[in-house]
Amino acid sequence: MRKQLQGTTVGITGASMGIGAACAREFAAQGASLLLCSRSSEGVQQLAHELQHEYDVPTYAFALDVRQRQQVEQALQELPAQWQAIDILINNAGLALGLEPLQDGSLDDWEQMIDTNVKGLLYMTRAIVPGMIQRKRGHIINIGSLAGRYAYPGAAVYCGTKAAVRAITDGLRMDLVDTPLRVTDLQPGMTETNFSNVRFHGDSSRASQVYRDIEPLQAEDVAQTALFIATRPAHVQIQEVLMTCTHQAASTVVHRPGK
Asked: Which InterPro entries match (predicted)?
């Protein structure tokens, strides 16, 4: 029986863990060929090997720091010919750093968030979308955030980057309205991944408090939603999806009933 995405090439950034890795697994299960990149070469190579063995799908993994414009351009230009035609791009690479008031924030943290969440997404999109237009097929799924809609204290810059993702996604959709390409902003709320551990620079004790007494989204929940979005009929474009766990209404409006 033919799987839904057999013959489709899916490119995923930030694929070594979290939502990126979960997307890789969900799309592999539907027969997609996987083009996986991450700053962690070892992690993404291991994932590609596991998925190729488990689902018998072609995989190609490489190290890539999406913040580096020249590295992005060179890496994509040097892809083997069979991996050049990307049908679905999942711009997943992103992070939050720190939770200090703006006036006390780290400029280094700000630059890393802006360079990854905004500029990295733009570099990947600019490099890949022209080929999609030429081939007259393609879908760009940007992993945004609830934070792009509802700012919260200590996260002005992170929220600003995700608001930018939302605006960029909307603008790109308008620019492509006369093509068959589809563009989606997938905006999850609290999702239990390595996200908070990264935000707090490895302070796992502090990170664990984010999800205290609540059942947050899991990476698999977001990945399954991305798969649903990508497998709609060609005439259906899901412009955006905002998803949270049941007890989260906005960024800081959370009920913690205990698990």
From this structure: NAD(P)-bd_dom_sf, Sc_DH/Rdtase_CS, SDR_fam
Residue of 60, 123, 152, 158 with catalytic role: 158
Q: Quick one: angle between helices 121-135 and 69-77, nearest 10?
A: 30
DSSP character string of 147-187: GGTS--TT-HHHHHHHHHHHHHHHHHHHHTTTSS-EEEEEE
d(CA 234, CA 238): 11
| 3 domain-assigned | no
Does residue 158 have an active-site annotation?
A: yes
Please check whether residue 83 lies inside any domain of the structure. Answer: yes
Cα–Cα nearest to 191, from 222, 155, 157, 151: 222
Q: Which domain holds residue 136?
A: 9-252
pTM of the model: 0.96
Q: Among candidates 233, 237, 234, which has minimal Cα distance to 137?
A: 234
Would you list the DSSP string of 244-257? --TTEEETTEE---
Mean pLDDT value of segment 175-183? 98
Where does the pLDDT of residue 184 fall: very low under 50, low under 70, confident under 90, or very high at 90 and above? Answer: very high
Report strand pairing: 253-254 vs 248-250.
antiparallel
CB 150 within 8 A of CB 102: no
Confidence class for position 141, pLDDT limits 50, 70, 90 = very high
